[in-house]
Fold this protein.
Amino acid sequence: MRLITCENYDEMSKIAAYMVAGQIVLKPNCVLGFATGSTPEGMYAELANMHKSSYLDFAEVKTFNLDEYYPIDRANDQSYYYFMNHHLFSKVNLKPENVNLPNGAAKDAAAECVAYDKKIEDCGGIDLQILGIGNNGHIAFNEPGEELTAGTSMVTLTDDTIKANSRFFASEADVPKHALSSGMATIMKARQIIIMISGKNKNTPLKKLLSGKITCSVPATMLNMHPNVTIIADKDAING
Ligand code: F6R
């Protein structure tokens, strides 16, 4: 695992955006895996700027997001589709048919999850996966526990995650209790992974990730088994 240490959030966002842009330049029809949350917002803003000012071309790029709340309609302003549209999709020339998130309005959630993993495989797999990390060490919504799930599946969010995500909702009670989330194998099959880590409250999961120990109680530690992971972390996350 490589660790890139950044002064602050802005530098982390720029470096991650350069790496995504590099991937697009090297392989214009690449498959990108995206995350939502506060951590990648600055990176999406940088990518939108690169598209506008340097014509970074997303015309042939395909994207797959890690997760979506369930049940939720994509028009709901709390949906991850809405988030992605607001921060990136509406600002670059991605083709609507090339952007993918699990469908939070699917009637049959299990069938949706199987179809989502199949679609990723049919597209040739993810070239570059962007991840954030939860305060409890989750990646996507693979929450700490005795077991982890390999494929995309419906998950129950932990109280920790509901609390952390309540900042985006009117109240904690409004946070959906379930999500459709990429599984650990879905993530580990990506050819390259970047995990962005910012802020003092991420110091504990970052230290666990860097310890080299692997445990289901900190799902991100599984990344120690992947051959091509780059951690881009700011000093607040590193020093705590
Ligand atoms: C979001 C996701 C989550 C977040 C994590 C960190 O798609 O998969 O694992 O990356 O909860 O969220 P922030 O960046 O808001 O701290």
